[in-house]
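Ticket #4471: complex job returned nothing on first submit. Input attached below:
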Amino acid sequence: MADKLRTQQELERLQAKYIGTGHPDTTSWEWKNNIHRDTYASMVGHPPLLSYMALAQNEPMAKVRAQLIRKMLQPVGPPPPREGEEPMVITRQNSD
Amino acid sequence: MATTSNMFLYSLTIQPPTTITQALLGQFSGTKEQQIITASGSRLTLLQPDPRQGKVNTILSHDIFGIIRAISSFRLAGSHKDYIILATDSGRIAIVEYMPKTNKFSRIHLETFGKSGVRRVIPGQFLAADPRGRACLISSLEKNKLVYVLNRNAQAELTISSPLEAHKHGVLVLSLVALDVGYSNPVFAALEIDYSEADQDPSGQAREETETHLVYYELDLGLNHVVRKWSDTVDPTASMLFQVPGGNDGPSGVLVCGEESVTYRHSNQETFRVPIPRRRGATEDPQRKRTIVAGVMHKLKGSAGAFFFLLQSEDGDLFKVTLDMIEDGGGNPTGEVKRLKIKYFDTIPVASSLCILKSGFLFSAGEFGNHHFYQFEKLGDDDDEEEYISDDFPTDARAAYSPVYFYPRPLENLVLVESIDSMNPLVDCKVANLTGDDAPQIYTVCGSGARSTFRMLKHGLEVSEIVASELPGTPSAVWTTKLTKYDEFDAYIVLSFTNATLVLRIGETVEEVSDSGFLTNVPTLAVQQLGEEGLIQVHPKGIRHIVRGRVNEWPAPQHRSIVAAATNENQVVIALSSGEIVYFEMDSDGSLAEYDEKKEMSGTVTCLSLGKVPEGLKRSSFLAVGCDDCTVRILSLDPESTLDMKSIQALTAAPSALSIMAMEDSFGGTTLYLHIGLHSGVYLRTVLDEVTGELTDTRQKFLGPKPTRLFQVLVQNQPCVLALSSRPWMGYTDPLTKGFMMTPLSYAELEYGWNFSSEQCLEGMVGIHANYLRIFTIEKLGDNLIQKSIPLSYTPKRLVKHPDQPYFYTIESDNNTLPQELRAKLLAAPSAVNGDATVLPPEEFGHPKARGRWASCISIVDPVSEEPSVLQRIELDGNEAAVSAAVVPFASQEGESFLIVGTGKDMILNPRQFTEGYIHVYRFHDDGKDLEFIHKTKVEEPPMALIPFQGRLLAGLGKTLRIYDLGLRQLLRKSQADVAPHLIVSLQTQGCRIIVGDVQQGLTYVVYKPESNKLIPFCDDTINRWTTCTTMVDYESVAGGDKFGNVWIMRCPDKVSAEADEPGSEIHLVHARDYLHGAPNRLSLMAHFYTQDLPTSICKTNLVVGGQDVILWSGIQGTIGVLIPFVSREDVDFFQNLENHMRSEDPPLAGRDHLIYRGYYVPVKGTIDGDLCERFSLLPNDKKQMIAGELDRSVREIERKISDIRTRSAF
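Support reply: We reran it on our side without changes. The output follows.
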């Protein structure tokens, strides 16, 4: 039993340390959010990939980099409403 | 998956990446001299700017086998040397020192902090070092920040603390700098966005309200921990920070740069903001806001507190930003900031880093295109450029204000002194031999926007010709000579004709000399300045020794003539037609004394060589004799054993030239080499043992079909060998790698050459070709690729060659750029007032931007004429942009070739949108110098890939593969199939097989069945490969590259391949059961290698004369690499072992595991890293010996193998 607890604690520690580590209740939104953030981080972190995108868009790399980091704020839209809460009807432009 | 493969490749970089991701200024040698460290791809390069010549020289380039993400430098208090901190993908922080003595980087500290790889929460993206060198902060994009305290111990060695954490969950970092706070606790400033609230709010409200914060992190040196000291909201569009000097030099704080705003912020100061001026002009959008993309702060010497910023906007305009301080009663500035000022300075290409040198130069590392080195003429202090001050603008970026404008103008404050070639970004590349040389050239398109270029790369050394003068006859040989030992420069040029000799004096003008004492009615065999004041002339009938006008003649024995001669300052050796060798040595009184015995050789002597007299000795102790029985003998010249044979070497052909010379080697000393040129055009280099005279370690190279002649010349104070065959070659020790290189000269054929030194030309060479005398020099030995470039109009996308004429066609397109038609319209509009209508050269100022617009054209490039140029340009209109091109011969037009260009209309890149796609057809006229538009066909998507296929056109339209034939009014569909999962980006074909490359899911093999006119996919890939380029290596195998920097080779199983081609197999293929939602069969991986750079083109080609085929790939950062296939298993084993030893003996500098680095995404397979193996020659001798011992070979043997594999197939 103690082992199970320890495993649980270990997992929680990992989840806190490495953002994006999954757990049995990971929602599809969380998962997508992580994947997108990881993707943007990778594009920013690999200079050739960033310059590939900057070249295609005909924008300076510094600008593309800032755009990508800002996209990490909420890459796949707002989270789904929690259970029990009324889904709100929002009319809002997709700013992505 | 097994890691062994039955196919092995040797990966070599023939041109390292030329991009600069970051450049840093510092005193890395520990002297007062400022140097520049640059990070380019995986390479760390040290540049030495030379203010006197206005040049930037590369001192050292080190491949760290890891991705350099950020670099920073720091200096400990009281020290004069800057250290370098590297943030790479190794999950470790490395501190590196440059050792000027050994010219190496040496690692001082390596501290592990996290996983390897480029990850979201592993620090490495941002790095900042305290200006006083007390601490550094390394941060990830999200959450994690680590602070290391730097100090020194009692032995004055640098120490590094364990990391202090400053993590905060849910925080994204946009920019990070260290604050200049003098000697109070180090503070770091970060520009952050917190997403944790937005992540909790389903309404999306929180996201809208998310603010950008400027956060100060203070390292409390006393308590040894880090606190978030201060935080405030800033401009919501802010993206970049710059450090403002503090302590005694200024008010401290940061400049926060956002969209059209530069704001001064500090915790105890007021906020000041100025807008970024917008460009004014007829073609400029007056509403467009600019952002700052690069910048540099510079403190002026002498006056404390004087500093300025140069900030660069996305258009490339530099703005000078300064701060005014409140003055106290006495007129002295206090620490309070009064206002911020901005004014236009100059316009230079967009930079990734700017460095201002104390000597008054600006180094601009171009983001795309060449790097520039400018000199400051003035600092824009008193010009009539309008200055905007913060008093007139609100501090809140969201408040209303009226934008400010300026007129861009040509450079006024800066002068360009040097432009350093950079191929970054390299978009496409083709290998072809258009100049009729032995070896092919590489043709590339690179650059972006108006600074795009077409570049031709040729293997060779750049030669600058000083004189080419016509002579009365055709000489057979040329020499230069000094008159006395003490002369600094050569005095005579001696030319030998078939039956005469001409002596010319070098001076202001070159004129004939009649009183030289030389016999002028005979040909000459050798000329030498002998002893102190003597001159000798060897001619077929004897030797003429001239001392101060007195002539001594040594006649050749009766019925015999002299056939070959070799001389140096003290010795003369001649060979007689009878095969005898006569040896002379200079006596103490300056006269020539004949050695009493003659040595008889077995055959006719064809050539002789004496080395130079080694310093401090009286004679060269060896004589090399080449005979027509295909041998070279080494004779001793020592007094005890004069003319005794020491060793002999058999050759494949009769030797035509010999040269004994000492050259620098990779061991750090010099080695005596015997260079041998053969009648067959082969050149050999062997090591001549200085004691025993043994010949060992022979390396050979084929230079050309003519007999090889060898001459010792001096280039950059280094003895080099000039080898002449059907083209001239230079053998030299590479200044950086210390390896021996044999490189052709980019020069006309020469028949004879000699050293030349005069007042005007210190280190030149003189050569003859036909009846021309040429004097030339070589200025740079390091660079063995010659670049020629032709400017293009827009960012090139593809390069195609005319099937048989030497012309190239490029398609170019620029997003968000005003097309030419609209530009012309705006300029012609009556509202454009005089000043607005001036058109500035787009190469400097860029094309005017316009959101959603495309500017695109097709250019015809003539690379080989006298004046390489763009012959014609066809602009596309209607917001169409070219995306693909091919030259297709149509069988229906009797094989006539057409240029096919695929375009898209109103394209938006992300997410992919367009209104229409077109395929344009152009007919070649005037041998391809002209294009005639035939028609265009509307298609449902912009075709991203086009190739000729069996006399028709094959196009990839989205997921669809379609065959078109040429009709009168448009292209006619013949067959189609949906074969790719997402988007076809590359096509290759052989026979009936088509290789389809998908943008995301790798390759699909498709077979075309002519009987039923069907396209059937039959084999595809196991993993996603975001393909960028492919080429067929053979019928079954395809080499390709992907967006993440991998190069791979895939092969279709033999059985599947055979089945697909069986006649009548279509029913079987169509009905074959899908395997896991893909094609029925899977490809197997043959080789996989991570290159770091993003491959943009790949092809199978041959690079050297008689070399085997290699796979050549080009990367976006300007890298050109080759993959050389191994022929024998024995070599594979050897190099695998060597690579293993190198991994452990020369581990990468930044602590990345080499094997994991090369297997970044997929484990490396079937590929040996030649760049790592080539570092063998840079190892210290004991390590070399150790590895050699382990491999059971000698060090020389290993070095020979490494150099052989390169020279056999590549440069």
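Residues 35-76 of chain A form one domain. Closing as resolved unless it happens again.
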